[in-house]
Amino acid sequence: MRTTSRASRALVCAVAASTALTLAACNRSSDSESGGDGEAAVGVALITKDSTNPFFVAMQEGAKADATKNNVKLTVASGKQEGDDQGQITAIEDAIARGDKGILITPMSTGVNAAIKKARDAGLYVIALDTPPDPADTVDITFATDNREAGKLIGQWAATQMAGKPATIALLDLFADKIVSVDYNRDQGFLEGMGIPVNDPKKNGDEAKTGKYSAAGGGDYTIVCNEAANGAEDGGRTAMEKCLAKNPNINLVYTLNEPTAVGANAALKAANKTAVIVSVDGGCAGVKSVTDGVIGATSQQYPLKMATQGMEAIAKVARGGEKPTPDAGLDFKNTGVALVTDKAADGVESITSEEGSKICWGN
């Protein structure tokens, strides 16, 4: 069920408190490790998938703000766009050549694994942010949202909105030609949340195209399409147009992220169609889309926590401190997720868009 207003406020305050504690820890670290004892700055590279997606922009800005507090010499780099493996590979090689102590990376795909191994072999401590690599031990550790759980939350919520009615589903994924954990975990998590059986949990599109969803009382489902939108608004619109051409009666749309959702909504409006749209990210623009009714529900993640906690970890390790360890039952450090919606659903814990706007990121 929806959290009570008291519990919701507690969740918001907990996230804010976590951020405050992180900043306080940064200040303490700076004072003790680099404030007056003359310790050298630690070179760290932050390598995101691109520098335009609000999620990665927020991550970069958070890391830049935190670098001085940890006496970190930060270099920010990225691919040119989603899918640019070579851009990330070049940035990794540059970090090795500079003699950096560590790398924070949102890995593009398995195509960058060899370069990450090269960095670790050279002695750099590598932390993945947001996107756990495949396999997970490609990096030293990952700081990320539990993307499977994020997908399950929006799937559970979506099933309550269908309320036993036939669900005619469009799945707007990330790539068609690359395997990325964030892609299959969100897609497969959504299906599992709906109560739709999956086959290979690391492969999109191999589930039965028709059958029964079992969550929230259950009903019939039809999966119309799995279309790649490349995480972008224009990609979301094009992907949705392709899906509508296959079946104009789509009433439920899963989107990998909120820019994709906005594009999908534009395509639906142009076709004079409506559908329930769910997504993942929780940026301020996405939360506003929930407020405006464009997105029914989104799973909010916290990129600033990923970047700042990862930055602190590398600085600590470089100075001889303890290495971070995964959370219990996971192979990564979980930085949290909360479902944001203004339509409460029994059995699905959530916060409102007003509450989500207090802890969102980006513009």
Mean pLDDT: 90
Helix amount: 40-55%
> What radius of gyration results from the CA coordinates?
20 Å
Low-confidence stretches: 1-37
Integer tally of domains = 2
CATH topology of the largest domain: Rossmann fold
Q: Which band does the percent of strand residues land in?
A: 15-25%
Count of alpha/pi helices: 11
Structural class: alpha/beta
CATH C-level category of the largest domain = Alpha Beta
Question: In whole angstroms, how far apart are the ends?
Answer: 29 Å
CATH superfamily of the largest domain: Response regulator
Number of strands: 13
Question: Keywords for this structure?
Answer:
Peripla_BP_I, 363 residues, SBP_2_dom, carbohydrate binding, Sugar ABC transporter, elongated, alpha/beta, disordered N terminus, 19% strand, Rossmann fold
Task: Write structural notes for this entry.
- There is one protein chain.
- By secondary structure, the chain is an alpha/beta fold.
- It folds into 2 domains: 40-144 and 303-324, Response regulator (Rossmann fold); 147-300, Rossmann fold (3-Layer(aba) Sandwich).
- Helix content is 42%, strand content 19%.
- Helix 1 (5-35) runs parallel beside helix 10 (303-318) and helix 5 (147-162) packs parallel to helix 6.
- It is elongated and about 65 Å long.
- Mean pLDDT is 90; it is low at 1-37.
